């Protein structure tokens, strides 16, 4: 559509909004993969079909060991507070550790890859994991006096002591709340106070980008800040990166701080019986940001969550016990909880924990690790893929590793980045699943089934078994199936992985995820309670969903919705461009205009001509409507510690506003450098 056709004042409904993304060609799964896959038969789609809801989900619950079987699959009598596997009793730690001993006690549970390459990779067997989890559970129970239902906050880096701590908590029914180690002490404090954790468990130091960081410093900040907010932390338990040696500068606080290794000496070979817990008791909290400033604690169950992550790890991740599985996410995020720790270990897999930055000391590092450990399942984010491509697009070919399966998660992936992942990282051999889901959902919502569906770059795929997504317009009317029209994606039905509620705030839970599309607040029928995910999406005629990004990431140019990701994808088609981020900037005529920030691949120079090339590419790929207000060629993007580009900061700079607090960024100095260009 040309600019002339746009009536500035016309209200454009969601259903009318154009999406300008080309259909992509399909890729077939490798026959060798299909042959060995856990799930090759599409009967699953019937077993977990809408007609068999909710009983189809029993297939996942049956993958676990239960102390007592459930009496009822789903109790939906009080929507949207759904309860799964009601009456069932189990223990998550038992399911991830003890039950694997019979067959796999000698097999590696966790491979630990320290960031410094001269430190050897270590391998912990299931028997060793069992011993350590028991010993630390004894510390929690007998030294700390913790019991089922208590909360503890963890602020731990990517080390095996993190899953050990989580599994020790789970053994007792103690609710863990792990805060991403890259978060500040202040952010940790907010989460301690909200969870009311009397204990903080942390580590003295860890490696990041070549430096051994003093992490204990953040524990002091967290405790002091919590005290200011009126909450006292009783004790800080500190694991040591090098056991027996304190590797931080910050002094220990007497009476409050203790080294875990000192206490552990009294609990050598202690055994703690796993506590038999209700399926709907809480396993953990995972804080995530919402539309408001205050982070919210997604409260996940034991039974439903464990069933869901185990089932999806088996069928979507295709994890077999003999696989070496590497998810490069951080355990401080939901991806790490579900798909490094709980799902893979419940299946007896060998799971890799990588301490460091993927591009450190160079972009060959992940592929050297893959070669050394013979990793065959690889799982990461588009951001990491783009970064590895930008600095080392030829690296994967230099190493002798072979993946059967790869995952992308966390953001929409641009089709050309997907193709690099497929051809270069996957060497044309691996299947790819693009898994769309959220902290709140516990596990995958949309993805192809790796041995059953064809892959389509840039599309997550259909709802996974048992999940029925739909796209609604602003008024709650379903858009025609397969119409490729943009709207809001919802999940029509409850599923076992979904969080129980927001910790301490049932009202916010209902408001945030259900109010938007529930028209009958008194209804006791789950069909009146679609789950509102907060993402824009389109459904293609083949039933594949393409996620456009958060609703608030959508740019409304003169009443036309353009997914930021669509624009970025187009900018990335310019050969010289390594990374691209698009932000909406207020415009007096069109409401907003997109500004495009690009950083270049090594060896290219910022020129006017290059900026024009980006503009032309957007115009030719999407249409004149997408012409950016400005193209900024920047040395690097402002990024969070987890690698996400901070579009909010870019938006503020572009709008000539104060970008606010940028101290938590991985590279705060870049903000000033970019600002100088305005
Ligand atoms: O916008 C979607 C995007 O990430 C959001 C959820 O973020 P978080 O709770 O941090 O969980 C990340 C790991 C699951 C979603 O609302 N998102 C996640 N996966 C995808 C995605 N966007 C597009 N494609 C995906 N595969």
Describe the structure.
The structure is a single chain. With 678 residues, this protein is an alpha/beta fold. The strands form eight sheets. An eight-stranded mixed beta sheet has the order 12-11-8-6-7-14-15-23, with helices on both faces. Strand 28 and strand 29 (591-600) form a beta hairpin. Helix 4 runs antiparallel to helix 5, helix 4 crosses helix 6 and helix 10 packs across helix 11. The longest helix is centred in the N-terminal third of the chain and has 18 residues, at 126-143. The two termini are 30 Å apart. Mean pLDDT is 92; it is low at 1-18. Residues 288, 334-335, 409-412, 434-439, 460, 533-535, 547, 549-550 line the site of adenosine-5'-monophosphate-propyl ester.
What distance lies between the first and last C-alpha atoms, to the nearest angstrom?
Answer: 30 Å
Bound molecule types: adenosine-5'-monophosphate-propyl ester
Mean pLDDT: 92
Approximate strand percentage: 15-25%
User: What radius of gyration results from the CA coordinates?
Assistant: 24 Å
Residues in helices, as a percent range: 25-40%
The number of distinct β-strands equals: 30
Largest sheet: 8 strands, mixed
The strands making up the biggest β-sheet line up spatially as 12-11-8-6-7-14-15-23
Helical segment count: 19
Weakly predicted, low-confidence segments: 1-18
- What shape does the CA trace take? globular
């Amino acid at each position: 559509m040309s600019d002339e056709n746009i009536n500035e004042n016309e209200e454009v409904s969601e259903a009318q909004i154009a999406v300008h993304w080309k259909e992509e060609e399909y890729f077939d799964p490798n026959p060798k993969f299909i042959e060995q896959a856990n799930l090759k038969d599409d009967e699953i789609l019937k077993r977990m079909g809408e007609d068999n809801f909710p009983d189809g989900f029993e297939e996942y619950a049956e993958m676990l060991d239960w102390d007592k079987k459930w009496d009822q699959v789903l109790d939906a009598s009080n929507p949207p507070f759904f309860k799964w596997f009601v009456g069932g009793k189990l223990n998550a730690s038992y399911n991830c550790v003890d039950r694997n001993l019979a067959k796999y006690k000698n097999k590696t549970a966790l491979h630990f890859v320290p960031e410094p390459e001269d430190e050897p990779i270590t391998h912990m067997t299931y028997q060793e994991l069992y011993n350590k989890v028991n010993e630390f559970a004894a510390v929690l129970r007998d030294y700390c006096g913790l019991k089922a239902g208590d909360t503890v906050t963890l602020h731990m880096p990517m080390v095996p002591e993190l899953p050990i701590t989580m599994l020790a908590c789970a053994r007792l029914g103690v609710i863990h709340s792990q805060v991403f180690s890259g978060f500040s002490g202040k952010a940790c404090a907010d989460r301690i106070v909200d969870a009311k954790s009397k204990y903080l468990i942390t580590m003295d130091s860890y490696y990041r980008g070549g430096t051994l960081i003093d992490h204990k410093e953040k524990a002091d900040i967290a405790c002091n800040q919590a005290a200011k907010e009126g909450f006292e932390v009783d004790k800080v338990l500190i694991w040591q990166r090098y056991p027996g040696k304190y590797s931080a500068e910050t002094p220990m606080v007497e009476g409050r701080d203790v080294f875990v290794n000192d206490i552990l000496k009294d609990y050598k070979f202690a055994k703690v019986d796993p506590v038999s817990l209700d399926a709907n008791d809480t396993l953990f909290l995972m804080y995530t940001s919402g539309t408001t400033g205050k982070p919210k604690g997604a409260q996940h169950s034991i039974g439903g969550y464990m069933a869901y992550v185990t089932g999806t790890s088996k069928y979507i991740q295709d994890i077999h016990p003999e696989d070496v599985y590497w998810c490069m996410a951080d355990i401080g995020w939901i991806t790490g909880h579900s798909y490094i720790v709980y799902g893979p270990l419940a299946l007896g897999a060998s799971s890799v924990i990588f301490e460091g930055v993927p591009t450190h000391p160079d972009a060959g590092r992940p592929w050297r690790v893959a070669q050394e450990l013979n990793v065959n399942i690889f799982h990461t984010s588009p951001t990491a893929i783009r970064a590895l491509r930008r600095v080392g697009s030829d690296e994967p070919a230099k190493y002798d590793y072979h993946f059967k399966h790869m995952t992308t998660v966390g953001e929409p992936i641009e089709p050309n980045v997907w193709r690099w992942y497929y051809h270069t990282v996957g060497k044309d051999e691996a299947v790819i699943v693009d898994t769309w889901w959220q902290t709140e959902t516990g596990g995958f919502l949309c993805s192809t089934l790796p041995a059953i569906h064809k892959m389509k770059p840039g599309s997550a795929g259909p709802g996974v078994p048992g999940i029925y997504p739909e796209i609604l317009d602003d008024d709650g009317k379903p858009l025609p199936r397969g119409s490729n029209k943009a709207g809001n994606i919802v999940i029509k039905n409850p599923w076992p992985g979904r969080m129980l509620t927001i910790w301490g705030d049932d009202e916010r839970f209902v408001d945030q995820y259900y109010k938007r599309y529930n028209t009958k607040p008194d209804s006791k029928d789950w069909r009146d309670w679609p789950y509102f995910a907060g993402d824009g999406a389109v459904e293609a005629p083949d039933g594949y969903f393409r996620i456009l990004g958060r609703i608030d990431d959508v740019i409304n140019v003169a009443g036309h919705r353009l997914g930021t990701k669509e624009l970025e994808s187009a900018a990335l088609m310019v050969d010289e461009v390594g990374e691209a981020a698009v932000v909406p900037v207020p415009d007096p005529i069109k409401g907003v205009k997109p500004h495009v920030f690009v950083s270049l691949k090594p060896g290219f120079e910022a020129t006017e001509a290059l900026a024009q090339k980006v503009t032309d590419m957007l115009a030719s790929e999407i249409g004149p409507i997408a012409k950016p207000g400005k193209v900024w060629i920047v040395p690097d993007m402002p990024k969070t510690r987890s690698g996400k580009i901070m579009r909010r900061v870019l938006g503020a700079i572009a709008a000539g506003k104060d970008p606010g607090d940028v101290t938590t960024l991985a590279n705060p100095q870049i903000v000033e450098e970019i600002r100088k260009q305005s």
